[in-house]
Amino acid sequence: VSIGVPAYNEERYFAETIESLLGFDYPNYEINITINGSTDRTGSIANKFAKQDCRIHLKILQRNMGAITSFNDCFYRSKGKYFFWSGAHDLWDPSYIKKAINLLEVNKSLVCAYPQIMKINEKGEKIGIMKDYHDTRGMCATRRYCHIIWKVTSCNLIHGIYRRELLAKTPLFKTRWAPDLLIISDMALFGEFAQIQEPLFLRRYFRDTETDNQQLKRTATNLSNGQSVASFHKHHQLLCKEHLIVIDKFYTNHFKKLYLHIMTRFAFFARFYFRPIAKWLIKKGYF
């Protein structure tokens, strides 16, 4: 198993995160850390751990190349049969890898196994389990894809453990808002997601005062170090277009292509511009 850890100015929680990653009870894994031009102590913290544990492979970029570069670099340097990305401020239960691999090894139709998510605050205190259930076992590819584009919001699925050979067939992270949603949508066409019914992922929330617009601006700016900041409308146009490209590459059946093109445009229109309509449709069980 390969773990990718992209990091930029994460000194506040970084040591705690690395200690958590080194605590898995699974015997065979590596940790690929990419420090993206940090201006704080993130690099020195990682370097200290790398000298102490040979499982850690460290790459320090001298200037900020954008989040996309560091996320993809972690993956390109990985060698494992399985792969997952870890946030540089999150924590993990020691049993996560073993339990996920047990599922993936038994069920070859799975492309990803991920756990329930426990929210923690800046002090590490547990806030509660997130309502995030995306177990798509038993669904066909079309239905899996529709489930993802309609129901995934926080993209916790990107921290699931994936089959690396299938991840390599996706565009990986692109300079788009919500590039993780694009990867997840693509992977949904390849196979099923399974959720472990235990909160093994402790996701830290420490930007509670941030508004939606502030989050969009921060995320868009960080993608490529401010090189491609665009309007909210433009970002969603580009993301929708990328989803249509994924559909065209996967399907040769023109009817299924047309159906998913319509569904994708409808989902993006409803979810990002008329959220009450989307929530009503989901609540009624249409998607």
Task: Explain what this protein looks like in three dimensions.
There is one protein chain. Helix content is 44%, strand content 20%. By secondary structure, the chain is an alpha/beta fold. Helix 5 (141-151) runs antiparallel to helix 7 (179-190), helix 9 (232-250) packs antiparallel against helix 10 (254-273) and helix 10 (254-273) crosses helix 11 (275-283).
Q: How many whole angstroms does the radius of gyration measure?
A: 19 Å
Q: Helical stretch count? A: 11
How would a crystallographer describe the biggest sheet? 9 strands, mixed
- Strand percent estimate: 15-25%
Classification by helices and strands: alpha/beta
Shape: globular
What letter string, H or E per element, gives the SSE order?
EHEHEHEEHEEHEHHEHHHH
Total strand segments: 9
Question: How much helix, percentage-wise, in residues?
Answer: 40-55%
What are the segments in which pLDDT stays under 50 over at least 5 consecutive residues? Answer: none
Describe this protein with a few key phrases.
nine-stranded mixed sheet; 287 residues
Produce the secondary structure layout.
Blueprint: E1 2-7, H1 14-21, E2 30-36, H2 42-52, E3 56-61, H3 67-76, E4 82-85, E5 91-92, H4 96-106, E6 110-120, E7 126-129, H5 141-151, E8 161-163, H6 164-167, H7 179-190, E9 192-204, H8 212-223, H9 232-250, H10 254-273, H11 275-283
Briefly, what is this?
With 287 residues, this protein is an alpha/beta fold.
